[in-house]
Every structure is written in structure tokens, then in C-alpha cells.
Amino acid sequence: MEHLVTSGTFSLDGSTFEVDNNVWLVGDDREVYVIDAAHDAEAILAAVGDRRLLGVISTHGHDDHIDAAPEVAERAGAPVLLHPEDRVLWDMRHPERAPDGPLADGDTLTVGSTDLGVLHTPGHSPGAICLYAPSLATVFSGDTLFQGGPGATGRSYSSFPLIIDSIRDRLLTLPPETVVRTGHGDMTTIGAEAPHLEEWIARGH
To answer: pLDDT by residue (tens digit) across 158-202?
Structure first.
């Protein structure tokens, strides 16, 4: 696993914010997947290096997670993968260029000796997904789960009840030692977050 932090903006519903995004690379010396090609295609391609890029996996379609995806994919000759339910968000940023392939709940993407299992976790967006790598004791949570609670649900195409269901049913059932590698900010673990579910529900946040 490798980790980059890239900086840019997030825009939705007429507002724009400065953001720092986590970009994750999973692979070995020969091949690699990029999870969330955010902001800086040059930095991401430099991290890929001379390895074969198997694909750019988008955990969801918000523009800060996909803005560099077409350039990274095209320059590396790799597909962009996105859950179809987030196509409406993708098209806001890239109306002229469709994703190359769908992600579906239960899919497994394999790189080297690592399996990445796709978990559909709607709420932050309709097609949000997380990627569970049992051999790495890691889940890449996108913007579904952070240190301290669920991702934001105050904007278009989001739902607080849905994100709570996704976290309860799909993420908090993972082993407590599972490291949560998030779309922004610091890592956490399933075990650190699980005791706080009822607090999140009570504050509706």
C-alpha cells in the first residue's frame, strides 16, 4: 500500500471548498490499482511509476475524488471504474467522458496477491463503495466512514439513514482490528469507531 495526499477543490450544490484528499495505491512491483485519482495526475502517475496500472477505482463520483481520473487512466492505458449509481455525479465533472467499467457489490478486484472486495455502501452518495482487503486487514472507506463518524450527508444525492445502514451492516461487521483508510484525514480502525454508532445516530451527523 502507498499513500499520497493531493490538494484541490470540491464543488457541489453551488459551493466550492478547498480539500486535501487521500489517494491510495495497492499493488506490488509489477502492477497496481489507484483508489480515487484526486487532483494531481502527475503525482499519481509518478507514484505508479513503471508498473502496470490495472485501473482507477473511484469510491464515489464527487468531483474531488474523480477530477484527475480520466487523465491518469488515459495516460496509463487503464480503465476508470465507478458504481453506476454515481454516474449522475461523474457527469457533472466529466460530461464528455464516461467511466470505462462498473463496480458492483460483491465484485473482487485482484492485484498481485491482494483481493479487493467491493462493498456497496450508499449514503454519502448513491453509488459509494468501499474496498475490503482481508489480507491487508484494511478497508478503503472513501467518504463513507471517517475517524469520528460517517461522511457528510447534507448535500444532493446523499442520505443519513442510508449511510448509517451501510456503516452498521457492511463496515462495522468487519474484524475490529481492520484499519480504515479514509478519503480524507487520518486513518482509524473498525474497533475504534464501532462503539460510537448510537452517538452518531442520536446527533444525526
So the answer is: 999 999 999 999 999 999 999 999 999 999 999 999 999 999 999
Instruction: List 115's β-bridge partners, or say none.
Output: 110
Rounded distance between C-alpha atoms, residue 109 and residue 52, angstroms: 15
The rounded distance, in Å, linking the Cα atoms of 182 and 190 is: 12
Residue 205 in this model has a pLDDT that exceeds 60: no
- The closest alpha carbon to 131, from 28, 24, 38, belongs to 24
What is the pTM (predicted TM-score) of this model?
0.97
| R_g of the chain, CA atoms, integer Å | 16
Place of cell 468531483: 63
Exposed/middle/buried for 5, CB within 10 Å: 0-12, 13-18, 19+? middle
Cα-Cα-Cα-Cα dihedral sign, residues 93, 125, 129, 44: positive
Strand partners, 138: 133, 179
